[in-house]
Amino acid sequence: MLSDFISLIYPINCLSCGEILNKNEKHICLRCKYKLPKTDFHKFSENPVSKLFWGRIGIQSAAAYYYFNKGGGVQHLLHAIKYRGEKEAANEIGMMYGTELKDSPFFNTVDLILPVPLHPKKKKLRGYNQSDFIAEGIANGMGKAFNPDLLARNAANESQTRKSRFVRWENVESIFDVVDKSAVEGKHVLIVDDIITTGATIEASAQCVQNLNGTKVSIAALALTMH
Ligand SMILES: [Zn+2]
After folding, report:
1. 165 CA distance to ligand 1 centroid (A)?
2. How far is the C-alpha of 14 from the C-alpha of 27, rounded, in Å?
3. 221 within 8 A of 195, measured Cβ to Cβ
4. What is the pLDDT of residues 54-87, one digit of tens each?
5. How far is C-alpha 94 from the chain's CA centre?
6. Rounded Cα distance, 154 and 158, in Å
7. Do 192 and 42 form a contact (C-beta atoms < 8 A)?
């Protein structure tokens, strides 16, 4: 009764469409849960995300949960996760994706899930890394190991807006480190980010993992920007 009363005064809105949630809904409404544009990329080894990395890095599998459309429901959801502290929602959406990835023949050999770390300054400013919560949710949904501390991002060397694409890429590559190599060697690692745009950041972190002995790398994000 008390919670009904509280939600009457402070209605909780769907993070995607803004409609008021009923008490059985959490973070996003049922309508959005089924209407947001899923890609189903994890059902195919060749898809727009895996093709994005062709000729750049030899990954096992790659996928994104949703299509990102500017001004659409996925953008609102990602914005809430990234900037408005909706960590639980990140976890929940990650879990929904994880339960789908678990049944994919391209992802079911994953051993370890690592989020792409934020730049330390950004993390300090924002207080959290949204990808940690997405990756943790995916790990729970898949029933796989998760560790947010194995992949690190170095603070230096990152102002790159005016550099050429090639120099920029080299720069990006050198900013990641695997902290405990023995914990990653020999594993099939799934690297998780919130959104894939050019793929440069996720490629650099994947490269850093793939340089270790016997590792395989796959990639998953919540959304893919349409080019
Ligand atoms: Zn909604």
Report:
1. 38
2. 6
3. yes
4. 999 999 999 999 999 888 999 999 999 999 999 9
5. 8
6. 9
7. no
Burial of 74 (0-12, 13-18, 19+ CB in 10 A): buried
What's the CA-to-centroid distance between 103 and ligand 1, angstroms? Answer: 26
Tokens of 13: 């809105």
CA distances from 204 to 102, 192, 225 (A): 25, 13, 18
- Find tokens 């949703």 and name the residue: 66
CA of 161 to the centre of ligand 1 (A): 36
Spacing, Cα 33 to ligand 1 middle (Å) = 7
DSSP 111: -
- What digits encode the pLDDT tens for the residues 97-139? 999 999 999 999 999 999 999 988 889 999 999 999 999 999 9
Q: How remote is the CA of residue 95 from the centroid of ligand 1, in Å?
A: 18
The region that residue 13 occupies, defined by phi over 0 for left and psi between -120 and 50 for alpha, beta otherwise, is beta
Query: For the chain, what's the residue count?
Result: 227
Q: Which residues contact 123 (CB under 8 A, 6 or more apart)?
A: 117, 129
How do beta strands 151-153 and 176-178 pair?
A: antiparallel
pLDDT for 175-188, tens place per residue?
899 999 999 999 99
- d(C-alpha 55, C-alpha 66), whole Å: 24
Long-range pairs of 122-126 with CB within 8 A, sequence gap ≥ 24: 126/82, 126/83
Helix/strand/coil for 216: strand
